[in-house]
Write a structure and sequence with these properties.
- The protein is about 60% helix and about 15% strand.
- By secondary structure, it is α+β, with helices and mostly antiparallel strands.
- The chain folds into two domains: about 100 residues, no CATH class; about 90 residues, TATA-Binding Protein (2-Layer Sandwich), CATH 3.30.310.
- It has a five-stranded antiparallel β-sheet with strand order 1-5-4-3-2.
- A hairpin with a 2-residue loop joins strand 3 and strand 4.
- The longest helix has 29 residues.
- About 10% of the residues are buried.
C-alpha cells in the first residue's frame, strides 16, 4: 500500500506535455485567498458609499444645474415663554457657550434646533442662534428684554443636502466617523486591488499601461488647466 502511495506521488511530479508542474505552497495559496477576501469585503463595504460620492461629485461640480436657484425660506415671529426667558438671563451674563437644558429642549421641540448644531452669539441684550445643517440653515434671534423672537429657516433642496454630505459640511460627528471608515475601506480595496494586479500582470500585459493612463490623465489636467 505504501509503495502504491509513493508511486502516486512520484507520478504527480512528472512533467506533463514536456512542462513540469509547479506545486504552490499552502501558505501562498492561503495568502492569495485572504487577499481576494479582503478585496471583495472592503469593496462591498464601500460600494454604496462610492456610488453616493461619485454621483454627488457630479452634482457638486455642476451645482448650478442641479441645486435650487433660490432656497425655500420660512420666516416666523413669536414670543419666548416667560420661564424660558428667565433661564436665559444668567446665561447672557456669563456669555455662555451652551444653553440650559430646558431651553435646549424648548428650542428643539418648537423650532427643530438641536443643541449640537447651535452657535450662540450674545450681544447688547440680544441672543442670535445659528444652526447650520446639510442643505440648509436655521437662525433665531431673541430680544432678551421683550422676549420677542424672529425665526428663519432656509432649505436648498435634496441635491444640496447630499452635496453637503459629500463635503462633510455641518453633518455632525457621526457622519465624520462614517467618512473615516469609508475612506479606510476604500483604501483597503484599492491597495488589495493593486496587489491582485501585481500578481496578474504577467498574464495581462495591458494592466500597467492602463494603470499609468489612469494616473497620468489627472496629472496632465492639473498641470495644464489648474492654476
Amino acid at each position: 500500500m505504501q509503495d502504491q502511495t509513493n508511486r502516486g506521488d512520484e507520478h504527480s511530479t512528472k512533467p506533463i506535455g514536456g512542462v513540469a508542474r509547479v506545486r504552490r505552497s499552502p501558505n501562498r495559496i492561503n495568502w492569495v485567498r485572504h487577499l481576494h477576501t479582503w478585496h471583495w469585503v472592503s469593496s462591498a463595504i464601500c460600494l454604496f458609499g462610492l456610488i453616493l460620492f461619485a454621483a454627488t461629485g457630479i452634482t457638486l461640480n455642476n451645482a448650478q444645474l442641479f441645486e435650487r436657484d433660490e432656497p425655500h425660506l420660512q420666516r416666523t415671529t413669536g414670543k419666548v415663554p416667560a420661564e424660558i426667558l428667565a433661564r436665559l438671563a444668567p446665561a447672557a451674563q456669563q456669555n455662555a457657550s451652551r444653553l440650559p437644558g430646558d431651553v435646549d429642549a424648548w428650542l428643539q421641540s418648537s423650532y427643530g434646533i438641536k443643541p449640537a448644531a447651535q452657535r450662540l452669539d450674545w450681544s447688547d441684550g440680544e441672543l442670535a442662534i445659528s444652526a447650520p445643517r446639510p442643505g440648509g440653515n436655521a437662525s433665531l434671534r431673541i430680544d432678551l428684554k421683550s422676549g420677542m423672537l424672529e425665526f428663519e429657516r432656509n432649505d436648498r433642496g435634496l441635491i444640496a443636502y447630499f452635496n453637503d454630505l459629500h463635503k462633510g459640511r455641518h453633518a455632525g460627528a457621526g457622519w465624520g466617523w462614517f467618512l473615516d471608515i469609508f475612506a479606510g475601506a476604500a483604501l483597503l480595496s484599492a491597495f488589495t486591488g493593486l496587489l491582485i494586479l501585481i500578481r496578474q500582470s504577467s498574464m495581462r500585459p495591458t494592466i500597467w499601461p492602463i494603470v499609468a493612463f489612469g494616473a497620468f490623465v489627472p496629472a496632465i489636467v492639473i498641470f495644464l488647466f489648474v492654476h
